[in-house]
Specification:
By secondary structure, the chain is α/β, with parallel strands linked by helices. The chain folds into 2 domains: 213 residues, D-Maltodextrin-Binding Protein, domain 2, CATH 3.40.190.10; 95 residues, Periplasmic binding protein-like II (D-Maltodextrin-Binding Protein, domain 2). 40% of the residues lie in helices and 15% in strands. The longest helix is centred in the last third of the chain and has 20 residues. It is globular and about 60 Å long. The chain starts with a helix and ends in a 25-residue tail after the last helix.
């Protein structure tokens, strides 16, 4: 047994179920080691590489547009082309159908898709913690979750948002039956401004909350992971499981270039905001810049020894169990192909 393999075995014994998850994924994807490495990827011919965004271009995609504009993807031989989906539920369907090479989605959406039998796997996290939040305006007199008792809360109508709201209420000692929930779709901010709802769950602390603050509305913002919901990666990069077995070099190249894009955004958020607005001229540059600056700390793992894009096995396991306990998943999430791998991140893998 090699020294890296022996070290991997020792970590597996020390971390129990977490390491079993890692080992299972390595086996399932046909990978053979969990040591670290330095990636040096040189460009050959440029390969087309289509990336389905999760939504319209916005601050969450700043690293992508920075890596495109600065030639980071071209340097590693990839011609990356973002595609805007017709709706946020489309990217994983397009990916599973083979229409795109990679899709940006949300950890809960990936777990739901896999539960429905789609052989997909996350290869990196764009945002390392939930952005989804409970947001309220001062006139609703909601300062904490317990204040929602007897009030109306709007969501975007996504099933796991109902479970998040129930978890938050129960954690605050509020019977969920005392809170009326309504589906306001993506009209979260208008629903609050009009007084239709006292609060919403579904807006992001790095977007809708900033938008309201810039309107001088002084919103109260409670991220769901600070209200009892297990932490999860809000935005993840997803590929087909078969591609994870056969296109490791391309995936390493993509993630290497993306890490360089992240460094560029961190060094010059204003330039990154301009690139996002160039990709989507309907955006407000001031909001995009504020969103980028606010989001930057959440793009890196809590353990700063880990690379950009790192996915925490313990957090994935805990959140999957939470989804299963709320009957959002029909099958045990620990069965079959694990939902993520860090194998292709810079410095990781064989």
């Amino acid at each position: 047994m090699t020294a890296p393999a022996a070290a991997c075995r020792r970590r597996a014994r020390a971390h129990g179920a977490i390491a079993l998850l890692c080992a299972g994924l390595l086996s399932a994807l046909g990978l053979t080691a969990c040591g670290t490495k330095q990636d040096v990827i040189a460009a050959g011919r440029t390969k087309p590489f289509t990336l389905a965004l999760d939504f319209f271009p916005n601050a969450d995609h700043a690293v992508i547009y920075s890596a495109i504009a600065n030639g980071d993807f071209r340097t590693v031989g990839l011609g990356v082309r973002p595609e805007v989906p017709a709706d946020p539920s489309a990217p994983l369907k397009l990916l599973a159908a083979g229409s795109v090479d990679m899709a940006i989605s949300y950890e809960p959406e990936l777990l739901l898709a896999r539960d429905q039998g789609l052989p997909l796997v996350s290869v990196g996290a764009l945002v390392q913690r939930p952005l989804t939040s409970i947001i309220a305006l001062p006139r609703s007199h909601v300062r904490k979750v317990a204040d929602l008792a007897g009030k109306t809360v709007g969501t975007a109508g996504i099933p796991y948002q109902t479970a998040e709201l129930q978890t938050a209420l129960q954690s605050a000692g509020v019977n969920p039956a005392r809170v009326r929930q309504v589906n306001v779709g993506f009209n979260l901010v208008p629903a609050m401004l009009s007084g239709k709802v006292a609060a919403t769950l579904g807006g992001f602390w790095n977007y809708e909350a900033i938008q309201l603050a810039q309107l001088h509305k002084q919103p109260v913002t409670i991220p769901v992971d600070r209200a009892g919901v297990p932490q999860y990666d809000e935005l993840v990069l997803v590929v087909r499981a078969q591609e994870a077995r056969t296109r490791g070099q391309d995936l390493r190249a993509f993630l290497q270039a993306l890490a360089q894009g992240e460094r560029e955004v961190r060094a010059n958020p204003a330039a990154a905001a301009s690139l996002v607005v160039k990709a989507n001229p309907s955006l407000d540059r001031r909001l995009q810049l504020a969103s980028i600056q606010r989001t930057l700390p959440a793009t890196l793992p809590a353990d700063r020894s880990k690379p950009f894009g790192w996915q925490d096995p313990a957090a994935w396991s805990a959140f999957a169990r939470w989804m299963f306990s709320h009957r959002l998943l029909q099958r045990q999430p620990s069965a079959g192909l694990p939902p993520f791998t860090n194998e292709f991140l810079p410095g990781q893998g064989i």
